[in-house]
Write a structure and sequence with these properties.
alpha+beta, 21 helices, seven-stranded mixed sheet, single chain, about 20% strand
Amino acid sequence: MNQRDNDKIRFSSNPIIRVTLFMSLVLLVFIGRLYYLQVVRHYEFVTSSENNTTDSTVIRAVRGDIHASDGAVLATNRQAIELVYHGGEVKFLDRIARLAKVKLPLPAVTNKFEPAILTKDVPQDNIIPLQEWLAGQESVIEVRKRVERVYLGGMAGNLLGYMSQASATDVEAGAALTDILPKAGLEFGLDDILRGKDGLKNVEVDAARRVVSERVVQEAVQGKTVTLSIIPKLQRAAEQAIVEAKEKINQLNKQHGIPLVESARGAIVALNPKTGQVLAFAVGPKYDPNWFSVKPTAKEGVKAQLDIKYKPMFNRMVNVWEPGSTFKLVTASMLLENGFGNRVYNCPWHWFYGGRFWKNWARRNMGPYDARGAIANSCNTWYFQSAVSYGPERFVNDIAKRAKDFGFGQSSGIELLGEKFDEVPTVTSVRADKIWNNGVALNYSIGQLLRANPLQIARMLATIVNNGKRPELTVIKAIDNKLVPPKPMTQISGKYWSLLKEGMLMTTRTGTAKEVLGANVFPIITAGKTGTAQSPQGHNRDHAWYMGYGPFDNPNLVVVAFFENGVEGSGVALPAVEKVMAAYWNIKLDKQGRVIR
């Protein structure tokens, strides 16, 4: 073997040489690739990099839940996946339609800022395979996360209010098209507590709007959970009492030749007089907030918004009405506290004054009454005689002062925006309206001049029950499980509280409520006052009221019922209050409202 052959053998068997050659080859490939990327495709990658953009994106805070007093969830959130079509050709359309359960053909999209929502809820099991078929088509069709407000339990809609996707007006005001905004009720009134604090993240996307990277700059803070003082069983009883009032209203309408109604229009509030906490807040006809959580609005919601006869979207609890005879407690209080005395007047069925007859509700002479008897039997003519004897102008101004003491002309304290409360009439305001005459005092005395909402009537009754301590009403029991103390009470002057309460006790013992809440028909001793207020619609279209409380010796419940065009307080509002009281004290009633013993 010659020297050349020996060198060749050593060269091929030397491992260092083989590794060196291999590494040199790899290095040459790397240098070639680097040259290709840095030189040959330099312009392409620079352009692509420059097309990447970083946007600041809001991280929406999770809205706080709303619970009932027993912890039952009334309002919460859920995440839904919707399929959104921006217009244009869609690849694999048949497969996509089957996965998303979308009917074909696709709708036309004429405005890129208003895409078509093909489905609001993609089935959970189909989301991942659907996204695979949508890959690369995001500018044409995409899945989009949507947070939806959900209302559970089917109650208290007019109290809770609702959330709805941003309208065009909201967007013009700065909201995002996908924002879910509060529109009414506690959702609106407690928005500062419920909405939490939005966070912020930076999102880098490429030229095709694909997400390249994300970085959270500020975490979102979840909204607080609000627990209401509402008692579910009492709320349901109040709502059902409004539904069932339709039958009694139609019985009276039929007697008077008035067209029958499809639904009772009313409001019932129950509260604890010692704390001012609202235990039931029912309005009828009611609506379901879930109708408005989706876009477009559910057909039931559209119908409710367009209903101008029964107006389910109209919150009768926070709007004002003539209080009728429920206001007689304020009149009696003013007369007694201002030194008029507990005078006795005969109660004829009419009384002549100022060139006209002023009528009582009963077409008979009811005999002599003092203030207690006048309350119990709702004698209009007792109040007419008292107003004239007191002096009409002085009476109007003094009754206005006493009404303000009881909280009329101001908010009840409830955490709802938009509560209505009329100015309390005085001689000056009445003269300014050019309607002054001495008869104004007579109308004022029986609750036909001032207007109030059911919450104010409930607070007025609670003030009497509390011997002059006027509560501020609230529906909040706790925030994030921390109990919220009752709002401070305001002590108003007076020393005749017992006499007023005796008059209301007589209402259920011998007066206008004895047939429903009398000693022999209802096991709990309660007291109260019926009310029938004239309405602009005319005769036999009166508004019906009843306010009551109990147990008489140690009251823990106040209930006020109001029915628009309910015809008669004792015939419609009184039985409704009985049903709510029975639910609170676990008393069973039959279909006729009689106690099952």
